[in-house]
Amino acid sequence: MASRVAVVGAGPCGLAQLHAFEEARRGGAEVPQVTCFEQQGDWGGLWNYTWRTGLDEHGDPVHGSMYRSLWSNGPKECLEFADYTFDEHFGRPVASFPPRAVLRDYITGRAGKGGVRRLIQFGTAVRWVRYDRGAGKFAVTVQARDGGRARTEDFDQVIVATGHFSTPDVPSFGGFGQFPGRILHSHDFRDAREFAGQRLLVIGSSYSAEDIALQAAKYGAASVTISYRTAPMGFGWPAGIEEVPLLSRVEGRTAHFAGGAAREVDAIVLCTGYRHSFRFLAEELRLRTPNVLYPAGLYKGIFWLANPALMYLGMQDQYYTFTMFDAQAWYARDYVLGRISLPPPREMAADIARWRGRLAACAGPADEIDFQASYLADLNKQVDYPGYDLDLTRAHFKDWEHDKMTSITGYRDRSFSSPCTGTTAPPRHTPWWHELDDSADTFLGHQA
Ligand code: FAD
Ligand code: NAP
Ligand code: MG
Fold this sequence. Notes:
alpha/beta, 5-stranded parallel sheet, binds flavin-adenine dinucleotide, 2 domains, binds magnesium ion, FAD/NAD(P)-binding domain, binds NADP nicotinamide-adenine-dinucleotide phosphate, globular, about 25% helix
């Protein structure tokens, strides 16, 4: 068994990993020394919301991509921890689509109960990781961000849990340099009220584009034009939101689109996605992948094929989030504890190829949901994570996809049942489209 394990990041993935080790320890297992390095001052990853954008007070990029008034975009029942249910955390059933602060409270609630905080060094950034073949160890260089000196420690295994929705993918378009309004990436979007009264152009056709367009309209934008590259989202948008083909260039305030349409716009938000970025990893350890459900090079979606002592959590595109992170964390833990052994590299590569072949055959969201559910089931069957009704979550995700097509402003008003407790969530108090207050107090108070 390894004697020292480093976990990089204390977001939902890193916390799941620490929790998995603690559960084993409480169950009587001999567990290695686990150290988690977190560059932020607190846990929760992206859910640790900040008003800051750009560079932080230490000169590092601000990790957060969240914004005010962000609500869960999937039913909370589809991400419920099987060993720490929503009913347990809140003491009563709560509605299916909570605001950001409520989900953060839930994530950190389990971490607090599990007693993992003592394993985390906060305000400590991992600056460089390299593998020393001769020693069979990783040299991990960390730095306390308040001007502290860098130091290097040896670890037998490294688990990367740094997320992949923080480093923006930023395209440029003709005329941007002369555009008289604000241009920003969704990574730096913080408050839709900023665009009240403005004509907003949103570029992209995925979750960020959908949600930022709706947020802007909800908080008073004069109009929102969404420009797609591959295909429109095709929802029944409320008045004031429309989808048009890809931007070709801007001239002054006039945005020109493929096919000839033009609109006057005051500000532009690039909802063009994120890059997997691991500047702290030596070249040969770095995962390079687009945002897909099964990245190449990761056995079981976790183990770096070229050196499985390096593990990655949460690097997939995500229908499932917290329950997928738990499945991965339990599996990685059991490998570290020697409960699971890995096959020879050739077999691992063949297994990755089989999963990616199946992914290539997926024809749309329903297939993708089944694909990711199968991936979770494959991990779960080999670990002692508590059972829950995974098939129910699959059905929920498909209902949710359908709900979004029925009403993009109303899908967050639906109620789902828990795959862990069977509880059906109470309805929302105020329809989401009319709820301008995203505070936890209001959300929870309304449940009384
Ligand atoms: P993160 O949450 O990004 O955490 C990574 C942690 O690693 C951070 O704390 C960071 O500070 C730390 N870190 C990074 N680099 C270093 C380093 N070099 N040294 C030390 N520490 C480091 N999911 C949902 O389930 N529901 C939602 O409604 C939802 N909304 C989202 C909205 C937005 C705008 C975005 C961008 C994502 C959303 N997600 C949502 C998906 C999100 O990816 C997951 O919920 C979750 O936060 C991923 O956890 P993570 O631990 O992998 O990464
Ligand atoms: P994403 O899902 O990776 O989508 C990226 C989008 O950018 C795609 O539509 C892509 O278009 C487009 N794009 C990329 N390059 C482009 C270019 N050069 N020109 C035009 N379009 C381009 O990223 P995301 O939408 O930011 O979502 C990231 C994560 O955040 C998801 O997990 C999501 O669930 C989460 N999120 C949640 C909420 C919430 O409400 N809770 C809100 C926002 C985001 P193509 O299809 O053409 O490739
Ligand atoms: Mg797409």
